[in-house]
Amino acid sequence: MSQKIFYIFYVTLISTSLNVVHSSSKLKASCSVYDPFKVLPDNNKFQIGGAFPLHEPDCLTLIPDTVQDIVAIQWALTHWNQNPENDQAKMGLYAGDTCSRPKEAISQSLRFLDSVGYHEPDECLTERKENIPKLLSIIAPKDPNSSFALGNLLRSANLVVGTYSFSAQNAFKDLENVVGTVPTLDIYGDAMIKLMGTLRSNLVTIIDNGEDASITDSIVEQFRQADVFVSEVVSYDHPLIATILAESDSKIVVSLLDKKKVADLLAKKEIRAQTKIWIVTAIDEDPIMLDENSDILKEGTKIQIISLHAKRKPLGQFKDYFLRVLKSNYESYSLLTSYVQQVFNCSVEKTPGFADCSALDGQRMVELYRLAHTVEPLIRLTYAFAAVGRKLVENKQLRHANICDRPSEACTKTVIQELLKLDYEFGLNDPNEFNGEKLRFYRSGNTILLNGIALEAILTVVNENGPMAYKVLEYESGPKPKVSISNLRQQLSLLRSICQPYRPYCGQCDHVVDVESEKIFLTIPKHYPLYVTGIFDFREGSKCNVLRHDDISLPMAFIHTLWTFRQRYPQLNLLPNIDFGALLIDSCSQGRNAIQSLVQMEKQCIRFEQASRNITIVPGSIFAFVSAVGSESAETIKNYFNSGESGIPAVTIDGGNNQEKNTFTTIPSHKNLAIALLKVLRQMQWEFVSVVLSAQDFDSLAAFRVFERLANDRGVCIAEVINVQGEGHHDLTAHGTNVTLMFTTARDAAAYMSGKLRHGDEYLGSTVHVMIGDAHDFYLHDRTNLAHFVGTVSVQPKDVIYSDFQQWLEMTTPLTLPEQWYWRYVEERWQCALSLSNKNLYAGKMCTGNELLDVHALGRMTRSGYLSRGLERLLFAMDAVYKRLCPEQNGVCSDFYNHGREYVQKILKNTPIEDDFDVYEFLPDHHGNFEYRPIGNWSISTGYRVITAYQTFINGAPKSDFHHTSRCLPPMCKCFLDQDFFLKPLENQQPPSEDNSAAWSKSYVKKEPAMQYVNNDVYNSIFSTWHTGAWRSDPTNYIFLALISIFLLLALIVFVLIIVKMYFRVVKGNQSLGITLLVGIILLYFTTYFFVFDPTDLVCRCRVVLHSTAYTICFGVMITKAVQLRNAEALGFNTAHHISYWNYWLLLFFIFGVQLALNVRWVAEPFMSAWTIENLETQLICAYNKYDFLLAQAYVIILLLLALFINAQNRNIKRNYKETKWLFLASLTCVVFFVVWTILYTLIPNDYRDYVIILESLSCGTILLTFLFGPKIYILLSYEPVVVEARAPTLQNMSENKDFNLFEADEELQQRTGAISPASSTNSSTRTTRCSSLAHRCTITSSSASSCGACSDDQVNISPMFHTVMRKKKNIRRAHSEHEYKHGYTGGNLRDSEPTTPNSTTSSKRSH
Length: 1408
Prior knowledge:
The protein is of the alpha/beta class. 38% of the residues lie in helices and 16% in strands. It is built from 38 helices and 46 strands. Strands 39-38-37-36-35-34-32-33-42 form a 9-stranded mixed beta sheet. Strands 1-3-2-4-5-6-17-16 form an 8-stranded mixed beta sheet, with helices on both faces. Strands 8-7-9-10-11-18-19-20 form an 8-stranded mixed beta sheet, with helices on both faces. α20 (670-683) packs across α21 (698-711) and α30 packs antiparallel against α31. It starts with a helix and ends in a 26-residue tail after the last helix.
């Protein structure tokens, strides 16, 4: 058969007019290249064809693979047409050369369609319809440009399109009726996803060619749906591709490049040396060859390569056939001549420098032969359409319908349907390589795909034995793909690429917020697993457009510490294998902006551009905050963190920091500063001082407040306080003391002292100035009069600046620190541009890039030093937690992400704060300059230690025999530090003096009394929140207001009812405890109003204080009443023992007093509210967190449990209408509510906690009101007192009268005798003696009036003739009627108790 097939091909070549000429023999291409190649068998029924790129665009250079494609189709058709079973379904081929030009691809395709009558009208085809073969499909060209051009043309034509290359299939993916026999992009993507599952990885880096972005986007989307994340997409020609791959988190690289570009990349040593897995996809070409001779697998290669490609057959029969055709016919036919000369590098015309083609032997041709990767898909495609043609012939219905006599929509639909139903099996008459295989198709989107397209993934690793290849995976397409996976992971050490939490590309960011790149800066911009964020005041102004010049050393200390931390302590191996970024945020000198940035970074994905890279920060990747903003913004930030809204560790440089909260600082506290200053003042005998205060500087003001509180107790008296509040000139000519403490900024201190000097203050030369805080650097702002200020003392925290940091500052230039925020500072400082974009701002003046900082002008840099120290403590804590939670230390583990911040916070809370201070004196040196020299130091452990004696100067001249002293000696001075500073530490205690007040109106300084309080709080009034608060936007609040008002009104009605009944003497006796309990319930209802309105400082205090106070009153009364009832039960009516009612009130006062003492903690809290950002809007929240609020209720819970315990013991006491039973039920129910409330309060979100408190307060208040006052109100409204005759009852009367008892029928008869217990709360003065009580034991009958026993008149008190009893209103009659008595009533057996409250009783009415 092979010889016969060869003969047919030989004849076919002769029958064609294709005369392709070798490029060396022609100067330009011949038009004959466009002549079509046709296979036209006898009795040809069907036709396929199209455009084939036989040549490059020059039409001279042959494309050898296309020659194999055409020969492969012809070879497959020869097998098909020679099969006797197919005599009625023979099929032909039309192939036109396009020269790889889109225009010619369209032209050749149209020619083919014209040859099958596609363009002819039906009327013109009548005569030659029988002679035209039926069109089954047009074959798309395999080059991408031609395929896209033809695809646009065929969008309006309803034709079947056959594709045998990925490029053609991708170009026609949006068209319907496309048939493909090669893997689609979706198949490759699905296979790669299965491969990632085999590798147990979910993170990749993609390298593409940068040309067709749709391919990359499709793969990325497919990965995203399968939870495989893409860290980066890099173009292969990126200049920093090796660095990007090395820094990427991904250990797996997916290449979408052709094999030549892959080879070029992997030939780079810096890429081959990376420990990565490369997945190389051969999408539209042969797989990359990896063997001993490959340049990729050189020595030192650490990468592992997985080649993912279509599985191909060797097709040996076709190879033999094709080479035999070449060998026999290359001299006769120009097409074969061109192929041989180009592929085998020989010359037919014996051109010098080329081998003679006639000398080629078969072995050499076999070695140089490479099977085109499109041959096998084309053979399958050819057989598929041929099999469909036979189906059309065999189906009588279709054959008689003549559906495909010419191209039509019905024919296309029929061909597609037959393809989907096709189940063709290759037989003996077909190519041997395909024997036994079946052709089946299925629909995938718009494409009809061959079922069973196989992909295989081959892993190549380099070991001591050289390159070793292993099959990792085999994938077979279909409606349900089949995947075969090997167990190589157990044999080989394959890498895993896992997407770490809080990465922007790990599915964390469905919505990304873009932020201004001018407000956020990332040092060394790239993605990091963790970030340490610093907040600084780079700019100010309402529009954040004014650059600040305060202290550039703060952000520089931040980045220098992060950069040098590991190098400073190399022996500790700190934070191994962890890389974290240094993120800097500009707060614009506004606390609101700072909080907004913090909340945004914690709750939203933010994105900004820096250094031409898009950086995305994911919530949770911020590990810690470092705040170095101004004092007022620092207070806002501190309140935000201390409120518990954020669980991120925060480091500040705030001297007023409370270490028990959630912020950490290493700078000594204001309290220690005040103690150190007081020690120095006492040591120097400077006990009477004046103070200059920068009232607008929050830090100076806070330090002075603490000093003021401690000064009086330590023997230092403040004579006056001068507030520096603005620009101007002062004309103060008198000074009250010899020592002035400067609680100011450096600029204010310099202005004050210079102003005193300019105005000729005669006391200036004899006054000692003590600098505190930033005032230390006063000399930097006015260097002209420094000689007048020698002897100035400064008390400062210990200098902790590292010397290498100062050296780095001195050497830093814009070229060595290319940070945008630093360049802004340099440009503004030197008034020149560092970038071309800013050139016009500085009149075209450009900087050199070598500008240096004036480090001396930066001053002592105290805050920078402690910022660096605090950041170091944070990093040490991170290292300890990291090594504890991630023992392998191979990078950030999940435990470190989930619990690291919490553990670091605990460590920081236990870290001691610095407490060392240095004392300096401003002195001249030998060169005539002036500088600070240390004269002492102080710490808590060592106290004050003198280094050198203080040198006294007067008017700039040293006085060794004189020492300044400043003491308050009455009556020449008066100290104002004798008032209550706990609640109002800076309250004005004396009116300002009237002297010179008018003259100071424009002064730079103002003289104020020592206790002048500067109020910086800007909280809204509680009244303003009623009509402008945000609470009005929530309808739920109106519902709660209505409920609260209803319950409060109900409690007030009960209160008024009891007062009215007491006024009309219906209720008598001591009702103070009952009324107090009712007041507590009313207060509990009233407290819930504060949980509805918006938080303010007052509202937050009332929430904590009133809630616990109301419960303390209620539960305290319940405990007191329980004790009262127990005592009454124990004492009975013994007249020998009487417990004063005041004893119970003292118990209640003690219970309430403890709560008042606990409330002082919340009253004295300086800030009970803090600013926060909610939905990007600033609003106030209460500064306490949920645990603080629960802790405030601890005492209440103790009282409730105590009340439950006592009332449980008393529950069987039947006094006061079984009041103990109601007390027990009320206590038990409240305990249950408290347990439920506490659990809900800790679990639910913060937005609903106030609602839970409202419901809890209303519920408990209603329980107390119902159980403790409900029975009494019922009696008050259903019964009324009546007066009846009191007669001595008989036992018969007693038994008969039980129906008239209101509650206790079985209670023993109570006598109006014995001691009066407060439990009975009776004021009745009618009692019987013991003798008369004995008389009651005698049986009295109606016929006997004799008395029992002998008692004298002196021993017997006359019993009352009338008695007041309670009777239901419907039974009211004349109580003294004989008829009523005869019906069995005996007044003496009713208790003398008031039914409304346990403390009430009715009064007996005595008849005279």
